[in-house]
Amino acid sequence: MELEQRRSDFEKRGLRVAALMYDPVETIRAFAERKGITYPLLSDPESEVIRAFGILNTNIPRKSKAYGIPFPGTYIIDENGVVRAKFFEEDHRERYTASSILVRYFRDDAGRAVKTVETKHLKLTASASDAVVHPGSRITLVLKVELKPKMHVYAPGVAGGYIPVAWEIPQTGAWVALAAGYPESRTLHLEAIDETLPVFEGTFRLTRDVVFGQRTELAPVVRDGRITVKGSFRYQACDDKMCYPPQTLPLEWSFAVEDLEK
Amino acid sequence: MRTDWIVFWAAAALAAGLAWAQSRPRLHALPKTDEGVKTGPAIGEKIPAFQAVDQHGRRRSFEDLRGPRGLVLMFVRSADW
Question: How far apart are CA B38 and CA B43, in angstroms?
Fold first, then answer.
């Protein structure tokens, strides 16, 4: 399981990991052996802990075998028992990967599926939290932009005919690309033309999540066990003297896909 | 008069809740069993005390599960299916 593979990345930050489910201990023991899980798996057969946390799935009828399951999700809890972050998906078939949590919460750019593009204005490094995805995986894509000296680009929302940065990922039937997160921009005052504009300078980092579809949605776009997410990055760079023509750089992230057979 | 306000705020809360649920694009409809997802303690809130038996038959609690900076606790639907 993916959490097993990434547990050292949490442990080096002083966090240990555990998972809880409503199955009896025998089932959990067999599951741990089958999947090679060494971190603690906790058995909650009466759903006492699930209820104490307030996440019992009350849509399931009492007489169903599934009654007692939680709404699935992950908490990051500090040493005092206080929740610092939580990652819950509404659709139980969708799941944040442990790697995605590491990228989003710890800004760990372990960086898989890395591709670099360089122009005379900037260097762009595209990476992803995961190299391997499953149906329903929610992963994080990262774009690191390193502007060359004296260069700036415009933040979304800039007025006056300037072209803001735009990270496009066309939606397809195989995944949903969620909105990109941009950092705080800096306000630049251009004396010569008396304009005040929101810009990015130096190095900045954008992230956005992609949620992959279910098996039937992925199958049409998988080639040789791999899936490629394509997008583009548009920008207009200016330095202290002039503005350069806008550029659109093609981007792609390539993943191995597992669990396609039922 | 008071009930009018209660109805108004209940309707507004429901609309906001529905808007949140539909605000992110989806490829497929939300399964009925996933409606009204509850996510438990809020950020900044303390988790409840708990105990549970692990795969080795040992009784565990938060204090012996956590590392020096805390614990990543994942609630999974089932090990079996």
Answer: 14
